[in-house]
Amino acid sequence: MSGKPKLHYTNGRGKMESIRWLLAAAGVEFEEEFIETKEDLEKLRNDGVLMFQQVPMVEIDGMKMVQTRAILSYIAAKYNLYGKDLKERAWIDMYVEGTTDLMGMMMYLPFQPADTKEKNLALIIERATTRYFPVYEKALKDHGHDYLVGNKLSWADIHLLEAILMAEECKPDILSAFPLLQAFKGRTSNIPTIKKFLQPGSQRKPPTDEKFVAIVRKIFNI
Amino acid sequence: MSGKPKLHYFNGRGRMESIRWLLAAAGVEFEECFLETKDDLTKLQKDGSLLFQQVPMVEMDGMKMVQTRAILSYIAAKYNLYGKDLKERALIDMYVEAVIDLNELLMTHTFQPADKKEQHFATIVDKATNRYFPVYEKVLKDHGQDFLVGNRLSRADVQLLETLLMAEECKPDILVKFPLLQVIEWTLNGQ
To answer: Domains of chain B (ranges plus CATH)?
Structure first.
């Protein structure tokens, strides 16, 4: 029993990646148990440890937590990354929901059939550059602070950095019209815990490739 | 300026319905501004009132809040429907997220093309009765209390009730195997 949170998921990004980011940014060491086959998932289900038969599941503080947002909210609150009051929390929630929507689109892209992939990629780029990034660029411009909310690092910043890096994998110059986001990216990447997570050998997972798509399809029957 | 929250959405359930439920359960009077045409939506978008160009949007406490979950969390916390500490909140969040998943399935049923409707209906019934309802039934059975978390009303109960009623609209006898869920429906309806 190590006392460290234990993450149950496949050995890839998916819905667990934001959780890995948040724990890493908070400086929390964690363990991972990878689901590699359908049988691994069945075993977890039969053991009764997945409340709704789904992963992500994170063992933390005596709980077997499921539901990505529930897990993220808990970690953010526990490690003081959720603002200082209800209003800051509301802003963090709004910002995070935006980056969740954007990253959701990118997460599913590798699973799209070949004939719709190009169209979906174009949609992602359009949404990123006309709906989402302008909001965060403006937020930073309006208050002139280094962080999105309350002049202090929060879950919103970590989530935004994750989204930016993922978007750049889609289109390397996607931030070209967003100077403040470029500066934000540089600064936030240099925060020691985050810098460590961005280095090779960390628990950060690589972009989803065809091989991983095949494994996921097999395990989850999709 | 009434000081009441003002909801901007179409005149229908959609993603705003859970917000209406929670405000109502909290005893908060609210006003509604219905979008009736595409132009109504475009106007709001051009006004800069919609952070991500989307509704729901709720004007409250000096903010123009968007994103359903953000709005629900704010209301729940403000009106003490979010548990007493971090752990109760975690449980509430887990229960609520699953309810939202089931709600999505129910909500999208009417939008299914005719040839997919039957299978979608079967999926709803299967997930509701095999994945979701058993969990809440067991929670209520295990602690024997009237409410899901902390022996007092929380957003988890309100959102569950909304979904139970919606599920019954889909299939009237869907709760036949879940006596405690039937009770909670009855209990909460009295609140």
So the answer is: 6-78 (3.40.30.10), 86-190 (1.20.1050.10)
Residues of B numbered 6-25 whose beta carbons fall under 8 angstroms of chain A's beta carbons: which are they? none
Which one of A65, A97, A135 has the shortest CB-CB distance to B69? A97
Q: pTM score, two decimals? A: 0.96
Sequence-separated (6 or more) residues with CB below 8 Å from residue A2: A31
pLDDT tens for A108-167 read: 999 999 899 999 999 999 999 999 999 999 999 999 999 999 999 999 999 999 999 999
How far apart are alpha carbons A42 and A219 in whole angstroms? Answer: 9
Residues of A in contact with B73 (CB under 8 A): 89-90, 93
A97 contacts chain B (CB < 8 A): yes
Q: Is A154 on the interface with B (CB under 8 A)?
A: no
DSSP assignments along B103-128, one per residue: HHHHHTGGGS-HHHHHHHHHHHHHII
Q: What is the pLDDT of residue B191?
A: 59
ipTM exceeding cut-off 0.85 for this assembly: yes
